[in-house]
């Protein structure tokens, strides 16, 4: 988390909504072999926890149940060039959106894991539009085999550490120039984040 309080938010609904919107992140945990990370789809449960699944063979799986972990979700990001400032006597920086979540992890039972999978499929198929794929199109044998290959987890979120670093320290005209520069450079998502999260 960036130390500047200007870049923070305490809006839990906004943060959880962003986790749902992005839907993918990284899980970090300490293991006897050192720190490890896994990349995984994420959903916020009805109880406000974050759920995810990993391959059963993932090195984190034996160490997660009952452990404290860190989940990181990254949103839009982009290099900020001094060329976009009227006064170029400055240095480059980076704008970005990220959420760090910390808490204790527990293993999901099979019913909970299947519920997570159905919800994830429904959410992501719905985003694509058109002819949706349904889990019922998978044979029972194939579904059971795939299910045996993964392990589901839920982390109760104790701490949220978001950073919305979007050139808020700059005057409005400079921020507008930065946003225009980002769009011209092909990075519209960070310009949209500047308008959405730090208007």
Instruction: Give the number of domains.
Output: 1
Number of strands: 6
Main sheet attributes: strand count, strand direction, barrel closure: 6 strands, antiparallel, barrel
Please identify, by name, the CATH architecture. Roll
In sequence order, what are the helices and strands, one letter per element?
A: HEEEHEEHHEHH
Number of helical runs? Answer: 6
Q: Stretches where pLDDT falls below 50 for ≥5 residues? A: none
Query: Biggest sheet: strands side by side, in what order?
Result: 1-2-3-6-5-4
User: In the CATH scheme, what's the topology name?
Assistant: Pnp Oxidase, Chain A
Shape: globular
Class derived from helix and strand content:
alpha+beta
Rg measurement, Å:
20 Å
Q: Give the rounded overall mean pLDDT.
A: 95
Strand content: 25-35%
What's this, in brief?
The chain is an alpha+beta fold and 199 residues long. The protein has helices at 12-22, 61-64, 110-128, 140-148, 172-184, 188-197; strands at 24-31, 34-44, 50-55, 68-80, 93-107, 150-165. The chain has a single domain, classed as Electron Transport, Fmn-binding Protein, Chain A (Pnp Oxidase, Chain A, Roll), CATH 2.30.110.10.
Describe this protein with a few key phrases.
35% strand, 199 residues, 6 helices, six-stranded antiparallel β-barrel, Pnp Oxidase, Chain A, globular
Describe the model.
- This is FMN-binding negative transcriptional regulator.
- InterPro entries: Split_barrel_FMN-bd, TR_PAI2-type.
- The protein is of the alpha+beta class.
- The chain has a single domain, classed as Electron Transport, Fmn-binding Protein, Chain A (Pnp Oxidase, Chain A, Roll), CATH 2.30.110.
- 33% of the residues lie in helices and 35% in strands.
- The protein contains 6 helices and 6 strands, in the order H-E-E-E-H-E-E-H-H-E-H-H.
- Strands 1-2-3-6-5-4 form a 6-stranded antiparallel beta barrel, surrounded by 5 helices.
- Strand 2 and strand 3 form a beta hairpin.
- Helix 5 runs antiparallel to helix 6.
- It starts with 11 loop residues before the first helix and ends with a helix.
